[in-house]
């Protein structure tokens, strides 16, 4: 299952500059990767077959849900996969663009509906930090895999997240999307799934009383609990855990770049803010020439500061200190202090060695989510941030299948 969780990634374009493993890749495979693909698919097939053998010894209903979960993950790994398991529980799809009404105006969205499924459950899947938003190929492939399992999927385009900004305004968009899908399905509460920083925003939306009747469950993958602590992680390269211990971990430059992009005012004078924001955005898009053109519009002082940030030479701790002077901004996008208001079941998944949002954040989430609502909390070495790390063991793959089976199960309750 070498690609099972790559749907949780952020951006090949945004992280290529950092030398990081690609995520939400938008380009075609290289020839080498193309040659490796059949071998990877064979490994996936063998691993999932073992999962199948394990599942059939269970009682009928658990076996069915685990088969559906394994089928979903296998289809996501390879849309062209054929055979018994990829076809298990698979439905043809109706896919179309739509709009979601919100307090800030209509939101572009895409809906994936399984054909011929009566009273199908629904889930809103929120895209990661990527300029392609709902048009990102891996997000679309994952949405299709979920929908083919008999679930109506809605993917709303969240303009702040698509613009690499973590903003409290997005919370209302997520809630509006859940409300819209619930109305589309005749009033049944729907799921809300968010990746990375969108996972934390999804939890905030679910904890908002205005959307309590709309959201039936939440899935937060690689999410944050308290943005102030995430900022501190980028300042100190150290994680803080609920039991009080701390661990050294080198923070990934990509995360700092995204967070600082959201707070350009901490970098440059107000007169330079617009051009600095454009320069960083274009750099994140991997458009280096256009970024350099914008850098030329900056004052000498601002240009030096922004260039240092883009080249990985900035004094990140000092910049984080500037952001930390305004904790209200970090708190406005943090689930911390709001989880007691949740009314929906919660599923948490995190990579054990995540260096963008550390796994300690999911441990904090698990600590604060009301115990009766915490359906699953999985921190696994098989995932790094929100994509696979190496070749997961069979046990780790089975954990992922069980996790997804639980999500499918609660969706159909």
Q: Biggest sheet, strands in spatial order?
A: 1-2-4-3-5-6-9-10
CATH architecture of the largest domain: 3-Layer(aba) Sandwich
Ranges where pLDDT stays below 50 over 5 or more residues in a row are 1-37
Radius of gyration: 21 Å
Q: What's the shape? A: globular
Which structural class matches the secondary elements? alpha/beta
| Distinct helical segment count | 17
Biggest sheet character:
8 strands, mixed
Beta content comes to: 15-25%
Overall pLDDT level:
85
**Given this structure, which CATH class of the largest domain is correct?**
Alpha Beta
How many strand elements?
A: 12
Measured distance between first and last alpha carbons: 27 Å
CATH superfamily of the largest domain: Alpha/Beta hydrolase fold, catalytic domain
What percentage of residues falls in helices of 4 or more residues? 40-55%
- The total domain count is 2
Topology as a string of helices (H) and strands (E): HHHHEEEHEHHEHEHEEHHHHHHEHEEEH
Q: What is the fold named in CATH at topology level of the largest domain? A: Rossmann fold
């Amino acid at each position: 299952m070498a690609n099972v969780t790559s749907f949780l990634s952020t951006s090949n374009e945004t992280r290529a500059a950092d030398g990081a493993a690609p995520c939400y890749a938008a380009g075609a495979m290289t020839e080498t990767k193309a040659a490796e693909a059949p071998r990877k698919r064979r490994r996936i097939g063998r691993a999932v077959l073992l999962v199948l053998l394990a599942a059939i010894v269970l009682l009928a209903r658990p076996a069915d849900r685990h088969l559906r979960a394994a089928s979903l993950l296998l289809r996501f790994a390879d849309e062209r996969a054929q055979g018994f398991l990829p076809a298990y529980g698979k439905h043809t799809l109706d896919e179309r663009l739509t709009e979601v009404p919100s307090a800030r105006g209509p939101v572009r969205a895409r809906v994936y509906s399984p054909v011929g499924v009566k009273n199908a459950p629904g889930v809103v899947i929120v895209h990661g930090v990527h300029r392609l938003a709902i048009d990102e190929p891996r997000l679309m492939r994952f949405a299709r895999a979920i929908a083919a399992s008999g679930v109506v999927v809605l993917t709303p385009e969240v303009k702040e997240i698509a613009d690499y900004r973590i903003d409290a305004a997005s919370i209302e968009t997520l809630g509006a999307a859940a409300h819209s899908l619930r109305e589309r399905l005749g009033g049944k509460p729907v799921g809300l799934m968010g990746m990375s920083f969108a996972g934390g925003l999804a939890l905030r939306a679910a904890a908002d009383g205005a959307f309590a009747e709309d959201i039936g469950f939440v899935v937060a993958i690689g999410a944050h609990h308290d943005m102030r602590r995430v900022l501190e992680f980028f300042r100190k390269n150290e994680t803080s855990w609920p039991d009080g211990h701390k661990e050294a971990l080198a923070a990934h430059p990509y995360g700092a770049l995204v967070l600082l992009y959201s707070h350009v005012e901490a970098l440059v004078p107000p007169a330079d803010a617009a051009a600095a924001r454009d320069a960083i955005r274009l750099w994140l898009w991997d458009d280096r020439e256009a970024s350099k053109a914008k850098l030329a519009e900056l004052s000498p002082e601002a240009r030096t500061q922004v260039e240092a940030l883009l080249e990985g030479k900035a004094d990140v701790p000092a910049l984080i200190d500037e952001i930390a002077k305004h904790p209200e901004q970090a708190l406005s996008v943090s689930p911390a202090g709001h989880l007691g208001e949740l009314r929906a079941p919660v599923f948490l998944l995190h990579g054990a060695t995540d260096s963008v949002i550390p796994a300690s954040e999911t441990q904090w989430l698990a600590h604060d989510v009301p115990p009766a609502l915490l359906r699953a909390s999985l921190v696994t070495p098989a995932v790094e941030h929100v994509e696979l790390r190496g070749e997961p063991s069979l046990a780790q793959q089975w954990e992922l299948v069980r996790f997804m089976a639980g999500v499918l199960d609660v969706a159909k309750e």
